[in-house]
Amino acid sequence: MHKAPAVAAATVLLIAGASARAQPPSAEQRFRELYKELVETNTSLSAGSCTLAAERMAARLKAAGYTDDELHLFTAPGHPKEGGLVAVYPGRNAKLKAILLLAHLDVVEAKREDWTRDPFTLVEENGNFYARGAVDDKAEGAIWVDTLVRFREQNYRPLRTLKLALTCGEETSGALNGAQWLTQNRRDLIDAAFAINEGARGELDAGGHRVALEVQAGEKTSQNYRLEVTNSGGHSSLPVKDNAIYRLAGALKKIEAYTFPPQFTDGNRAYFTGMAKIQAAQGQAALASAMQALVRDPADAQAIGLVSAKDPGWNATLRTTCVATMLEAGHATNALPQRARANINCRIFPGVTQETVRARLEELVADPAVKVTTLETRGPSSPPPPLTREILAPIEKLAAQFWPGVPVLPILQPGATDGQFLNAAGIPTYGIEPLFLGPDFGHIHGLNEYVGVKSLLECRDFLYRLVRVYADRK
To answer: CA-CA distance, 429 to 148, in Å (whole number)?
Structure first.
């Protein structure tokens, strides 16, 4: 007579368990699953497929109610694994230009033997997500897909049309670039008033404290140049002064000694204006004063020298930079070199052409035996987008709610993103991605790339709310 209650209790537990299993996943859980699927889809150029990743994201949008007419999978001829996706969420006013949400699907190569964890398995550990692409750029890609899913489920009707473009080829020079391909072949599909992209972050100091939230307002152009010396060579037992390696070394030393002049845009001017206040609050009065001085007077060499010497990132955002990255010389240990080559990687300030920099390198080398050649051009030099209150004000308002006291600082990005192609095509593109990363930059492009779980989830909520604000503005 004591068995009946036990059976009843077990039945209740079974029903409760079945009911729990039948519950739909929470919005956060679903985002985690989407993010995991995207990260674990290998999209490296050597072994992966952006096309597969795009198809999987399209399937998630279709499951949320998007129609075939709203989903545009694309591949360029001859590049079956480098495809992408454009999704369109119609707005109420077709006369207003759309807002484009951009992210790239491809990732930098990663070798399992070098990593502590499998780079293509998402691991949650120590409050972080670890994987190749955990930040760059599958964090924002997953957030954009999740945002459109949430909008459709909520039957949200924005004033402006929203467009999502997931593309391939951002990480590898020489690969087909999906963003560039769209601007050249399907501009109508991605045309927008402006685009939101990667390229900025939240800054953490070495102690993990939030310093600032960046907004990218322009970027530099990456361009490689080759320095090459050739001659007839000979036997190493009969050395001569005209040695290809020595000539090349002399040319490299001249480039090393040169510093390009400082230049200013709205982006780096605003950055140093805000950073001066941060430095003053941290007791760095001399540094703060120097930043204020260079903003007032771009010709203040002393102030610019002090700031440039303090931080490589500050130096990079002030000028074009060129650095030797690869060397190749000789053909035998017992022969004089017949050829010596070096690669010079330059990050070119907006508005400066690749040919202008090549000519400057040639002038610096000042040796007719050293040939200076422009290698494959990634894309056009693009102007910085206008830094307007319409863009900045909503970010500042939301940032004050999410992270009180953390200033919003526009930046000129020393690196390169797909914004290069959109800005050049006349679609102003801003880097807005409030993932807070420390001085190690989350090991992006390196071993054991990671992002804080809490930071990722906050970024998701921030961008969801920001897009709604932008989408409902006339």
So the answer is: 19
Judging by DSSP bridges, how do beta strands 210-219 and 408-413 pair with one another? parallel
User: What is the per-residue pLDDT across 233-254, written as a single tens digit (0 to 9) for each?
Assistant: 999 999 999 999 999 999 999 9
For the CA atoms of 40, 176, 81, 41, what is the dihedral angle to 10 degrees?
0
Q: How far, CA to CA in Å, does 236 sit from each of 20, 121, 240, 331?
A: 79, 52, 9, 12
Measured from the Cβ of residue 359, the count of other Cβ atoms closer than 10 Å reads 13
Q: What is the pTM of this model?
A: 0.89
- The number of domains in the chain is 1
Omega of the bond prior to 114 within 30 degrees of 0, cis? no
Per the domain annotation, does 328 fall within a domain? no
CATH of the domain at 455: 3.40.630.10
d(CA 354, CA 170): 19
Strands 128-130 and 123-125: antiparallel
Q: What is the 3-state secondary structure (H, E, C) of 17-70?
A: HHHHHHCCCCHHHHHHHHHHHHHCCCCCCCCCCHHHHHHHHHHHHHHCCCCHHH
Query: What is the overall mean pLDDT for the chain?
Result: 94
- The SS3 call for residue 429 is strand
The Cα 135–Cα 178 span in angstroms is 19
- Coil, helix or strand at residue 430: strand
Q: What is the pLDDT of residue 14?
A: 43
169: containing domain = 27-199+417-471
Instruction: Provide the strand spans (E) within 133-193.
Output: 162-167
In whole angstroms, what is the distance from residue 160 CA to residue 91 CA? 4
pLDDT band at residue 3 using 50, 70 and 90 as cut-offs: very low
Give Cα separations from 343 to 60, 223, 233, 278, 415 (angstroms): 43, 10, 21, 38, 18
At 23, the pLDDT band (50, 70, 90 cuts) reads low
Is the residue at 180 inside a domain?
yes
Q: What pLDDT sits at residue 381?
A: 80
Assigned domain for 263 exists: no
16 in any annotated domain = no
